[in-house]
UniProtKB/TrEMBL annotation, chains A, B:
Belongs to the monovalent cation:proton antiporter 1 (CPA1) transporter (TC 2.A.36) family. Gene3D superfamilies: 6.10.140.1330. One of its GO terms (cellular component) is recycling endosome membrane. GO terms for biological process: regulation of intracellular pH; sodium ion import across plasma membrane. Residues 671-688 have a biased composition (Basic and acidic residues). Its main location: membrane. Residues 552-574, 652-691 are annotated as: Disordered. It is found in: Cell membrane; Recycling endosome membrane. This is Sodium/hydrogen exchanger. Residues 1-42 form the signal peptide. It comes from Sapajus apella. GO terms for molecular function: potassium:proton antiporter activity; sodium:proton antiporter activity.
Length: 709, 709
């Protein structure tokens, strides 16, 4: 069952990068058009005089074709929707019967695959209805063409270049063409809601507590992984050249590009199982945070690699200037997109704070949606990356705006983006399944594929283990071996790698990368995704943890090095040990940003210097004075790596026979102490210094092999 | 300030119906494309050898253009989003300050207008960047063209025909072109959520109680209105011909078409004020029901008129065969679309009933969304009208599926469609404002416009007053004069009329219709919308009514003809007077459809004949046996025209000084009697026969001119 049968290496040779800007996304597009044409052409036909009968007839014919085409588009889109419906029903069945070996995304891929097979082998290859006409011109290809047909002028737009060998096969299989989307649909329509939702659901203090490690994994890790995979693949490509298996150019930059796109991990399957089993929250935060941020890094990294263009004739030698330009582009795009996202988030927070919009949840939700969307457009308009901007906008919205929203809007916005994310994600995965058989330019090279599998394994290992080692030097709350193995194992590839790979399939090298990426996604989602539950059990990772509570001070997963001293002393030590940069950020955020952007935090009149008195009074919301006492717990995210470890905790013992006992030790905070507003004091309180009653209990956790409940 | 300055009548002459199927919706589309191209072309450039340098440079140039274009698209869409954001903030301000003379849609139009003026007069008219190349061919225009440029082949697609005079002005003002959407965007993207939401929020027993009248207004009324407006406009056109003001053909069918599109009322402004002031629920039901259904009627009617094509040379004489064919098309499309919508709704109801999907609100919401969307596609794929199908799907979903959803999914689906509806509606209205100045083919004819205003006034009068008279012959619960005046007054035109008018602007007649429709929408939304509150007061229409309660038996609005006999006797009479067709439907719905499709109603085992025992047991949900006692009030919609008039009621007296007193007389239903399941008994109960304690109070309502609260 070789998916690329019709697309052997030699085939792709002549397909050069077409100006894809002008390729239509046939399905979505023609859905926008098509219909109603009946009205148009018929009307024109009826308004024409008898002399114009023949032209009216012609238009009617075109009309009929258009209508037929619109009908086919509806059928194609309907196919996708029924596919998703089927997926939803099967997911329900799986969830209902507690089947965990196959995630919804894997399921969507399987259904997509089945439909792809049917479309490929079940439908007759219809030859293009449109007769093509050749006319010769001398100059370069224009994007607009005017054609004079017996006195009437028609406007044509450039669709792309066609390799000479393919001229007769244009539109050979209409149905396969119909179900092929323009790759930019993924970047401009489907990825933004997925990424925004990821950012918007990052509001977990466990994320901020592990922020340092997450940033290290995301930035350093992705760079290391990209570099290692790129180099290994270059070796594979050299080998293929020696073996004579390579029929076209494959440069070092191509290999690095492959390294960048395949470094975007997407452990959606693993995280879904973590969520369901309530697995360890710190591991969840590490994995989720890494995967969210490394998507952004991978996008920007891949564009930077593409932007690497040495001067001179030899465009593939190393050029320091071009290299630094690429690094500059990386930093520029990343920081620009970050700024765009943060600024829109901040503006939304200010708008929701200073208007009483929360009386009208519908308006509030609509505003929130529009502002978040405008981030994407703003970033694209400024030449930055919309998807990255949307991610940081989501994080900012969750951190600030969310607090200003009415209770109804909070759930509305969450649910809205949840649905959009769900639909978009499953759509992408079912499209992946479909693409394996319907994509027309597969280049299936076994050596490259095997090499890629080895390379991504080594790339992930070379990034997780050494980085964890160095991070553990700094972390008091160490990342245990079982956590490292689990992170290593969770290197699934998903929507982002696919979207990056399908974005450009013009050259032979890119086609090979696309096919390989597709197979890697399939393998990792099905095999690794399915192996998550046994792996969790095998690695002795705690499950059944209440995500709002902290892990016990010492358990199997975390290797706390020092002895169990009195907790108050440890709290003090924690405070001193936490990195100064986070303490700085925390106090800045708590003293200035939170009060300016939300209704919480200490009044600015107390935190700002006296000479800013007027400004402070304007910016401080009146609610702060009232609410000062019951400082909302949800707002006080802890950004220290291990600060509030001893504040409250709870864990459960789950044994193999499925019986579970949950023990929760909660600590009551004495509200009466909550009057001072200095950040140091709040920090101390957050860290559990002082008046906490702490009980500590060591637990032995055995993973349930089968949930009998 | 003549908006059509640059588009004088003569101008439109040569613009013949282009095969609009192939016109791009520039904004949406190029957002899908564009970006990432940087990656594509740059990659191709870097993979090319030195010999290919020139072609790479060429591609880079195309690339730069594409990128620039994508950036412009983002800016354009951003403009719309900022416009909507501004609208939302201003709406909030208006709601906050209780300003009622301007509705959000009117506001959106104003902002659109301002941006339109800026775009039109503020931006320089850039000449097209793309050099155009003419090459002559002999045959008809193909939709695909292959062009040989020095050995390389490029594929072009047909974009449309261009009038010879315009060849040099193609892409004259890039910015104006950018903000022009393909008309089909309205039908395929923006209208479906609006219409679905209307259908989904129709679940009001007042709607079903007035169903007969609503159907009469929607079907007969729209047909009458269309015919009268069409004939009056034909007179106007004849007059214009005599005056020499008509520069191109304008047939009788065109006039009828105009009558059809302009008969779609959209009293969104009026209904919003009704909602806010809690105006009379029956009047609300009549207006809302009429406007929802007459949209559907107007769409199908307009396509039927377009489909009217007499045989023979004289294509504009009356032809009985063609006429009956048109009637057949009307009935076919309408009933087909209705069936599609109802069937998808029923399937969704069955799926949600027989799976335990309600344990997973996200899955349930996603399924609901996908199924509702698939209605649209299914109808389009079968050649029916998607928008009409979506309407009936919404009604079915509200009537059956809604009862099977979990509590969370109910609010989720409602909120999801509420947001989509809100965004789509305000987008359309702000686009209308924009189109007045940016649309390039306005034909501004004062005589036609004045004639149209008179015609729509007369058309509405000729439909409301006579129909109300005939309906009042049958209704016991008469539609009073003040209600009739209010309905006459509420004949606003909105999104649907606009969408139908912009769908085809190829011929001179259609362009004139479009300009006129736009002005009618502006006038009605601003002037009539703003006059709603004074009009309500002037007509003495009750406000401050609890929508869940019934009007008092006799007040100013309803002219109950017979004397005030004992209520139980009246109830009995009511029961006998109600139309047999509704009684039939009610008992069928209550005994069979509700139990089959939802968890409510009597068990099928009691309503179906004994020989269907097995089937009945399979279809009846176990909950029915448990829930039989507390029959949910929300499920028992009353489809009788005036049945439960005396069940409960409440009204409030609002006086001009702003003080309001609300008196509610509630009637407790004795649950203990609710054991029998025969539909007759339920009907009797619903009608308030028997054990109701009714107190009646005549009230005098004075509308508050200013809300001081």
């Amino acid at each position: 069952m070789e998916p690329g049968d019709a697309a052997r290496p030699g085939f792709g040779r002549a397909a050069r990068a077409p100006p894809r800007r002008l390729l239509l996304p046939p399905l979505l597009l023609s859905l926008l058009l098509g219909r109603g044409l009946r009205v148009a052409a018929a009307a024109s036909a009826s308004s024409g005089a008898a002399a114009e009968d023949s032209s009216a007839m012609e238009e009617l014919a075109t009309e009929k074709e258009a209508e037929e085409s619109h009908r086919q588009d509806s059928v194609s889109l309907l196919t996708f929707i029924l596919l998703l419906t089927l997926t939803i029903l099967t997911i329900w069945l799986f969830k209902h019967r507690r089947v965990r070996f196959l995630h919804e995304t894997g399921l969507a891929m399987i259904y997509g695959l089945i439909v792809g097979v049917i479309l490929r082998y079940g439908t007759p290859a219809t030859s293009g209805r449109d007769k093509s006409l050749s006319c010769t011109q001398e100059d370069r290809a224009f994007s607009t063409l005017l054609v004079n047909v017996s006195g009437k002028f028609f406007e044509y737009t450039l669709k792309g270049e066609i390799s000479p060998g393919k001229i007769n096969s244009v539109e050979q299989n209409d149905m396969l063409r119909k179900v092929t989307f323009d790759p930019e649909v993924f970047f401009n329509i489907l990825l933004p809601p997925i990424i925004f939702h990821a950012g918007y659901s990052l509001k977990k203090r466990h994320f901020f507590r592990n922020l340092g490690s997450i940033l290290a994994y995301a930035f350093l890790g992705t760079a290391v992984s990209c570099f290692i995979i790129g180099n290994l693949m270059y070796g594979v490509v050299k080998l293929m050249k020696i073996m004579g298996q390579l029929s076209d150019k494959f440069y070092y930059t191509d290999c690095l590009f492959f390294g960048a796109i395949i470094s975007a991990t997407d452990p959606v399957t693993v995280l879904a199982i973590f969520n369901e089993l309530h697995a360890d929250v710190d591991l969840y935060a590490l994995l989720f945070g890494e995967s969210v941020l490394n998507d952004a890094v991978a996008i920007v990294l891949s564009s930077s690699i593409v932007a690497y263009q040495p001067a001179g004739l030899n465009t593939h030698a190393f050029d320091a200037a071009a290299f630094f330009k690429s690094v500059g582009i990386f930093l520029g795009i990343f920081s620009g997109s970050f700024t765009m996202g943060a600024v829109t988030g901040v503006v939304t927070a200010l708008v929701t704070k200073f208007t009483k919009l929360h009386c009208f949840p519908l308006l509030e939700t609509a505003l929130f949606f529009l502002m978040s969307w405008s981030t994407f457009l703003l970033a694209e308009a400024c030449g930055f990356t919309g998807v990255v901007a949307v991610l940081f906008c989501g994080i900012t919205q969750a951190h600030y705006t969310y607090n200003n929203l009415s209770v109804e809007s909070r759930s509305r916005t969450k649910q809205l983006f949840e649905v959009l994310h769900f639909l978009a994600e499953n759509f992408i995965f079912s499209y992946m399944g479909l693409a394996l058989f319907t994509f027309q330019k597969h280049v299936f090279s076994p050596v490259f594929i095997i090499g890629a599998f080895v390379a991504i394994f080594l790339g992930r290992a070379a990034h997780i283990y050494p980085l964890s080692f160095f991070l553990n030097l700094g972390r008091r709350h160490k990342i245990g071996w079982n956590f490292q193995h689990m992170m290593m194992f969770s290197g699934l590839r998903g929507a982002m790698a696919f979207a990056l790979a399908i974005r450009d399939t013009a050259s032979y090298a890119r086609q090979m990368m696309f096919t390989t990426t597709l197979l890697i996604v399939f393998f990792t989602v099905w095999i690794i995704g399915g192996g998550t539950t046994p792996m969790l059990s095998w690695l002795n990772i705690r499950v059944g943890v209440d995500p709002d509570q902290d892990p016990p001070p010492n358990n199997d997963s975390f290797q706390v090095l020092q002895g169990d001293g009195p907790d108050s002393a440890r709290g003090n030590r924690t405070k001193q040990e936490s990195a100064w940069i986070f303490r700085l950020w925390y106090s800045f955020d708590h003293n200035y940003l939170k009060p300016i952007l939300t209704h919480s935090g200490p009044p600015l009149t107390t935190t700002l210097p006296a000479w800013c008195g007027l400004l402070a009074r304007c910016l401080t919301s009146p609610q702060v004075y009232d609410n000062q006492e019951p400082l909302r717990e949800e707002d006080s995210d802890f950004i220290l790596t291990e600060g509030d470890l001893t504040l409250t905790y709870g864990d459960s013992t789950v044994t193999a026979n499925g019986s579970s006992g949950s023990h929760t030790g909660s600590t009551s905070l004495e509200g009466s102490r909550r009057t001072k507003s200095s950040s140091e004091e709040v920090l101390e309180r957050d860290l559990g210094v002082g008046d906490q009653k702490v009980s500590s209990r060591g637990t032995r956790l055995v993973f349930p092999l089968e949930d009998n409940a």
